[in-house]
Amino acid sequence: MKKSVLTRYRVMAFATAIMLLVLCTCMVFKYGFDKGADLTFVVSQVHGVLFMVYLVFAFDLSSKAKWPFGRMLWVMVSGTIPLAAFFVERKVRADVEPLITSPRPAPAQA
């Protein structure tokens, strides 16, 4: 497995988790204080697109790491729980880093 598979998953995990926290904050302001309805709409749309990209990258990572279905589903669902993606990303990184193939050294020129 290439390192880029893990890197793009990690980037999307952080982006999705941060946007989910921003969306939760916007929802508090929208429903708690009756302010920011337009901003909440924009943030929800951005989060939705980022989450779809996150799902694609999480699926790609899970298929290349040959995870069972339950683990793949847990990683995908963690993007919907505020703060969970930060903890799951750390665990995924620790589990996947040993699977990353190191580049082969160039053959010696004689």
Structural features, described:
This protein is mainly alpha-helical and 110 residues long. The chain has one domain. It is 75% helix and 0% strand. The longest helix has 31 residues, at 3-33. It is elongated and about 65 Å long. The model has no long low-confidence stretch (mean pLDDT 85). Pfam families: DUF3817. Its main location: membrane.
Keywords, separated by commas or semicolons:
single chain, 110 residues, mainly alpha, 4 helices, 75% helix, 0% strand, transmembrane helix, membrane
Task: Please outline what is shown here.
With 110 residues, the chain is an all-alpha fold. The protein has helices spanning 3-33, 37-65, 69-77, 84-96. It has one domain.
Give the low-confidence spans. Answer: none
Number of strand segments = 0
Strand content of the residues, in percent?
Answer: under 5%
**Secondary-structure class:** mainly alpha
Helical coverage, percent range: over 70%
Outline the biggest β-sheet: none
Q: What shape does the CA trace take? A: elongated
Distance from first to last alpha carbon? 31 Å
Overall average pLDDT: 85
User: Over all CA atoms, what is the radius of gyration?
Assistant: 18 Å
Structural domains: how many: 1
Order of helices and strands: HHHH
Count of helical stretches: 4
